[in-house]
Write a structure and sequence with these properties.
With 425 residues, the chain is mainly α. Helix content is 52%, strand content 5%. It contains 14 helices and six strands. The protein has a two-stranded antiparallel ribbon with strand order 1-4. Strands 2-3 form a two-stranded antiparallel ribbon. Strand 5 and strand 6 form a beta hairpin. Helix 2 crosses helix 10, helix 8 packs parallel to helix 10 and helix 9 runs antiparallel to helix 10. It is globular and about 65 Å long. It starts with a helix and ends with a helix.
C-alpha cells in the first residue's frame, strides 16, 4: 500500500517546483542558499512546536487571540513559497502552459494534504488506519499552502508587468497589490458583514468528551450576531459549516484549551459552553483569503531577490518593507483587530509576514553575505528535502511505521516507551 504513496511523493519532488517548498530549479552557481536554509528552519520550527509543544504549552498554538511560537509556522511557509515563486516564474514564455503546470502541482499538493491530514492515519497511539469518507477532513496545512501557492502563481503569471529597470520595480507589480487588497476587502466584508444565526450540531459518542455509549448529543449555540470574532459565532466557521459540512472540519480545535472549556485529561467538560464541543477548522475557507495574501507578500520580496543584484539594496528593501508591515499590523492590533491565527486576521497576517521578512533578512545576511553555511548546513539539507521530511516526520508517517514493530503486544513499541517516559510522567 505504501509503495504507490511514496512513488507519488517522489513525483512531487521531481516537479519543476514544489508548492510546499517552491524549490526553484536554478543552477547551483545562482541558487540562493538562504532560501533552503529558511525553508529548513520552517520544517525545524514545525517539528519543534509539534513535539515539544506538548511538554511546554507556552510555545504551542495560542487558544484564540494572541501570538505564540507555533503561530509563526504557517505564515513562514507561505512567505517562503511566495519568495521562491518570483524566481520560478521570473521568465514565463507560455502563460497557458505555466498556468496548467501550476494548477496540477497545486492539486497534487492539496490531495496529498487530504491523505495525510484527512483522518486516514489515527496518530501515534493507534496502529489502525482508515477514514469514513463522510467525516474526512478536507482542509489542512498542505491544502492551505496549495491555495496560497496557486493564488500567488496566477498573480505572477498573469498580473505582472515585467520591469524595464531595476529601480522602482514595485510599480510593475501593482496588480498584485490590487489582488491582495481585493482579497483583504472580501475577508473583512464577510467577517464583519455576515449575520451568524443560532446553530446546532450533533456530537456522537466517538467524539464526545463524556458520552460513553453509542448515543449522541445535540448542542445549540446561541449567536444571532454580526461581526463577532469569538470562537462560537464567527463568520469563518459558519462559511465552513455551510460549504464543507461540519463533519469535514477539524475535530479537536485549539480553542478547547480556553479556560471556558474546562479541559481535563484531554476532554471537554459537559458543563462547558456548547461551542467548546464543536469542530472548527483553523485552515478554513475564509481565512485562506488572508493566508494567500501572505504568499503574495512573499512574492514581492522575491521580486527584490530577482531584480536587485546588490546585497545592500536587497536588505534595505526587505527590511523597510517588513518594518512597514509590522507597524501597520501593530496599529490594527491596537485598534482592536485581534491577532488571531485561527481566523487569520489582517493584523495577524501583517505581523507574521513582517516577522518572516525580518527572519529572511537575517538568514540572507548570515548565509549568503557572510557565508556561514557550515553553521546552517543541517537546515539547508532539511530545506532541500522539506517535502519528504514533512511527509515522513512532521505528518507522523515515520513514527507510525516505527511503532508497527512491537514485542508480543502492540503497546510494547519504541514510540510508546518514549511517550510514556517523557510525556506521561
Amino acid at each position: 500500500m505504501l509503495l504507490p504513496f511514496f512513488s507519488f511523493v517522489s513525483a512531487l519532488q521531481m516537479a519543476d517546483s514544489e508548492p510546499l517548498l517552491a524549490l526553484q530549479q536554478l543552477p547551483l552557481s545562482t541558487r540562493v542558499a538562504s532560501l533552503d536554509v529558511f525553508r529548513g528552519f520552517c520544517i525545524f520550527l514545525m517539528m519543534l512546536v509539534d513535539y515539544v509543544g506538548s511538554i511546554f504549552p507556552i510555545i504551542a498554538h495560542s487558544p484564540w487571540n494572541g501570538l505564540r511560537l507555533a503561530d509563526f509556522v504557517m505564515p513562514f511557509f507561505l512567505f517562503i513559497a511566495g519568495v521562491s515563486l518570483a524566481l520560478v516564474y521570473k521568465k514565463v514564455s507560455n502563460k497557458v502552459d505555466a498556468t496548467w503546470k501550476a494548477v496540477v502541482r497545486a492539486v497534487k499538493l492539496f490531495l496529498l494534504g487530504v491523505f495525510l491530514q484527512g483522518g486516514y492515519f489515527h496518530g501515534i497511539n493507534s496502529l489502525a488506519y482508515g477514514v469514513d469518507i463522510e467525516r474526512i477532513r478536507l482542509l489542512g496545512i498542505l491544502q492551505r499552502i496549495s491555495i496560497g501557492y496557486i493564488v500567488a502563481a496566477l498573480c505572477e503569471i498573469w498580473l505582472s508587468c515585467r520591469p524595464r529597470r531595476e529601480a522602482g520595480f514595485f510599480k510593475n507589480y501593482y496588480l498584485h497589490w490590487v489582488a491582495a487588497f481585493s482579497l483583504a476587502a472580501i475577508y473583512m466584508g464577510l467577517s464583519y458583514g455576515l449575520y451568524v444565526p443560532d446553530w446546532q450540531f450533533e456530537v456522537s459518542s466517538s467524539t464526545s468528551a463524556v458520552l460513553l455509549t453509542n448515543s449522541s448529543n445535540v448542542y445549540t449555540v446561541n449567536c444571532s450576531v454580526r461581526g463577532d470574532l469569538g470562537p462560537a459565532c464567527n463568520a469563518a466557521a459558519m462559511i465552513d459549516r455551510y460549504f464543507l459540512g461540519i463533519n469535514h472540519l477539524y475535530a479537536k480545535p485549539v480553542f478547547r484549551n480556553l479556560k471556558e472549556c474546562n479541559m481535563t485529561n484531554g476532554r471537554v467538560s459537559e458543563d462547558s459552553p456548547s461551542w467548546c464541543h464543536a469542530p472548527y477548522d483553523p485552515e478554513g475557507l475564509l481565512s485562506s483569503l488572508t493566508a494567500a495574501i501572505t504568499c503574495i507578500i512573499g512574492l514581492q520580496c522575491g521580486h527584490v531577490l530577482a531584480h536587485i543584484q546588490d546585497h545592500k539594496g536587497r536588505l534595505r528593501n526587505w527590511f523597510s518593507f517588513s518594518a512597514s508591515l509590522l507597524l501597520l499590523g501593530s496599529f490594527l492590533a491596537i485598534i482592536e483587530i485581534p491577532v488571531n491565527k485561527s481566523l487569520y486576521t489582517i493584523s495577524y497576517m501583517l505581523i507574521t509576514s513582517a516577522a518572516a521578512g525580518i527572519t529572511f533578512c537575517a538568514t540572507y545576511l548570515l548565509v549568503d553575505i557572510h557565508g556561514y553555511r557550515w553553521l546552517t548546513s543541517p537546515l539547508e539539507w532539511m530545506g532541500k528535502h522539506s517535502l519528504s521530511i514533512f511527509v515522513l516526520i512532521a505528518s507522523n508517517i515515520a513514527i507510525i511505521a516505527i511503532q508497527g514493530f512491537y514485542w508480543k503486544k502492540p503497546e510494547n513499541n519504541l514510540i510508546h516507551l518514549i511517550v510514556a517516559c517523557f510525556l506521561n510522567r
